[in-house]
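Hi there,

I know you've been waiting on this one. I reran it after we fixed the sequence typo, so this is the corrected version. Both the input and the resulting structure follow.
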Amino acid sequence: MSRYQTIARTQPGVLETNKVLRNTYALLSMTLLFSAATAYLSMALGLPHPGIIVTLVGFYGLLFLTTKLRNSAWGILSVFALTGFMGLTLGPILSFYIHSLHNGPQLVMTALGGTGAIFLGLSAYALVSRKDFSFMGGMLMAGILVAFLAGLVGLFIPMPGLQIAVSAMFILLMSGMILFETSNIIHGGETNYILATVSLYVSIYNLFLSLLQILGIFNGDD
C-alpha cells in the first residue's frame, strides 16, 4: 500500500515538472524566433547599436519587469518585450560582422550552428542523465560577475587577449548555465516557466555572441 501511496505522491510532481519543461521550451522557441525577427528588422532598417548604457538599462529594466509579472499573463508579454529588445541590439552587431568581414556571413552561421549544437547537446545530457547540477549555482554566479566586470574593462581598454579570455569564459559559463537551469527544472528547483525561459534565452544569447566574437578574432579576414 505504501508503494502506491509513494507513486501517487510522486506522479503530480513529475507531471508538473514535465509541464514546466514543455512550457519553457515552447516559449523559448517562440522568443528565439521573435528575437531573430527583431534582429533582422534592425539590420534591414540599419539601426545603430544603442550603446552599452541603453542596452544594460533596457535589459535589466525589462528583466525586473518580467520578474515582477512572472505569475501573470503579462509576464509572457514582458518576455517578448525583453527578447525583442535584445534582438534589436543584436542586429547592428550582426550587420558589423556581415559587412565588415569577407567571411562574415559564414562566421555568423558557424556561431549559430555551434550555439544550437551546444544547447541541444547539454540540454539532452541534463534531461537523459537526470543529474543534479544545482551545486554549480554559486560558482556560475561568481564567474559571471568576474567575466562581466572584465568585459566592461575590455570596452574601455581594448586588449585582444582580454577579449578572447572573456569570450571563452562566457562560453564555459553559459554552457554551465544551460546545464544548471535544465537540471533546476527537472528537479523542481524552478517551477516558473517564464523565469526558466529568460534564463535559457540569456544563456543562448551570450553563448552565441561569445562564439561569434572568438570566430571573428581568429577567422576574420580583415
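Quick highlight: Residues 1-10 have pLDDT under 50 and may be disordered.

Best,
R. S.
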